[in-house]
């Protein structure tokens, strides 16, 4: 018999309450399970449950401690760089949604763990916000990759219309956010708080069959499957296009030019410098994009596998070895996928020299005393003019 898919595909909170309850009641009242489990199996089951519960209890705190400051730092750095174009729009909006996703998930988890009665309205709102922010951040990355592919495939056209494209990108992202919100809208009236052995937030009985059936696969595709597949394709296409562009540039660089006068040579160098600067900027942006999307693909792969197999993965409920294995694998899958909301700033910092340079300068200026803040301000505004332009 196929198992029932967990309704909390994006919010990993039901596992803690459900498994803790089964642990307490089974160990106290059901001695039959011990008669069919060897001491080795019992010990291994205990260790698996203990490891899963520790992960479930602390991993969101760790991700929030790393991700929330990192996302804020990414937004401040981009704003201080006074960047133009479309890529900063994606970076800022992605940082905002990642921060909200971590905040809502952690809040929802803490309310469930501490058995705070949030009411049906609170249950619905938190599950909607947590699921929507998670899915929306994934699709921001998808459109970020799409924009980068267009930039490397049609660089001149994207450069000529960068200001117009920025406004179009904002409008497209607003529409995408609204569409995703509409798809997740049923979560606002299909959930309720239930108090049995513990207080839990789950689907209402009238909607449970539909929500755990067709709707489960719709949201699974929107949340994980489609972003995973699209980003895999876009990353391959972007890498291939960059490789082709590098070959062309290498050929052009090796072409021997006819001798020219000194004045013509100087004018040629002046004309080439902006193009070199633009190429350097695009290289930094491409590195940031490939790092973020590549990491997303790797970290999302486990949850895709788990969500595909969960409806058909039947396990004996309660304090059993199979249930312990499934619960542990669920925690690991959610650790990976929730990490996508916390790692982008560190990927930008490691891969983009210009982003790293501006962030370190921001820290240096923030640590300046009042007597040298003016010098810091001058260094910030003056030296940027002599360097390559920002993203």
Written account of the structure:
This protein has 14 helices and 2 strands. A hairpin with a 3-residue loop joins β1 (191-195) and β2. Helix content is 78%, strand content 3%.
Tell me the count of domains: 1
What percent of residues are in strands?
under 5%
Second rung of CATH, namely the architecture? Up-down Bundle
CATH superfamily: Rhodopsin 7-helix transmembrane proteins
Rg result: 26 Å
Query: Roughly what is the average pLDDT, rounded to an integer?
Result: 76
The number of distinct helices, counting runs of at least 4 residues, comes to: 14
Which CATH class?
Answer: Mainly Alpha
The largest sheet has its strands arranged as 1-2
Q: Percent of residues in helical segments?
A: over 70%
**Could you name the ranges where pLDDT drops below 50 across 5 or more consecutive residues?**
1-11, 13-32, 260-275, 368-391
Q: For the terminal residues, how far apart are their CA atoms?
A: 54 Å
Give the overall form: globular
- Secondary-structure class: mainly alpha
N-to-C series of helices and strands: HHHHHHHEEHHHHHHH
Number of strands: 2
What is the CATH topology classification name? Rhopdopsin 7-helix transmembrane proteins
């Amino acid at each position: 018999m196929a198992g029932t898919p967990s309704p909390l595909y994006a919010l990993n909170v039901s596992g803690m309450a459900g498994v803790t309850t089964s642990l307490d009641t089974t160990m106290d009242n059901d001695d039959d399970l011990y008669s069919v489990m060897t001491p080795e199996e019992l010990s291994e089951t205990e260790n698996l449950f203990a490891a899963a519960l520790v992960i479930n209890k602390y991993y969101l705190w760790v991700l929030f401690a790393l991700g929330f400051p990192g996302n804020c730092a990414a937004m401040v750095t981009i704003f201080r760089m006074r960047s133009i174009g479309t890529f900063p729009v994606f970076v800022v909006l992605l940082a905002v949604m990642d921060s909200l996703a971590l905040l809502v998930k952690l809040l929802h988890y803490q309310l469930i763990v501490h058995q705070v009665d949030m009411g049906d309205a609170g249950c619905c709102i938190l599950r909607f916000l947590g699921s929507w922010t998670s899915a929306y951040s994934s699709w921001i990355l998808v459109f970020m990759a799409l924009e980068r592919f267009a930039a490397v495939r049609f660089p001149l056209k994207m450069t000529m219309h960068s200001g117009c494209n920025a406004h179009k990108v904002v409008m497209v992202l607003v529409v995408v956010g609204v569409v995703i919100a509409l798809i997740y809208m049923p979560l606002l009236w299909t959930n309720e708080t239930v108090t049995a052995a513990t207080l839990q937030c789950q689907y209402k009985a009238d909607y449970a069959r539909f929500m755990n059936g067709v709707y489960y696969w719709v949201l699974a595709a929107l949340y994980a499957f489609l972003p995973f597949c699209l980003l895999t394709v876009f990353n391959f296409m972007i890498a291939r296009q960059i490789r082709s562009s590098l070959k062309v540039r290498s050929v052009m660089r090796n072409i021997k030019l006819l001798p020219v006068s000194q004045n013509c040579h100087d004018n040629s160098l002046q004309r080439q410098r902006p193009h070199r600067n633009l190429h350097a900027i695009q290289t930094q942006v491409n590195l940031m994009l490939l790092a973020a999307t590549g990491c997303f693909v790797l970290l999302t792969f486990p949850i895709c596998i788990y969500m595909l197999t969960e409806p058909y993965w039947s396990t004996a409920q309660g304090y059993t070895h199979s249930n312990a294995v499934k619960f542990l694998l669920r925690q690991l899958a959610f650790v990976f996928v929730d990490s996508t909301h916390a790692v982008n700033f560190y990927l930008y910092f490691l891969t983009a020299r210009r982003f790293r340079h501006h962030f370190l300068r921001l820290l240096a200026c923030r640590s300046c005393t009042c007597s040298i803040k003016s010098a810091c301000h001058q260094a910030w505004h003056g030296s940027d003019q002599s360097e390559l332009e920002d993203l």
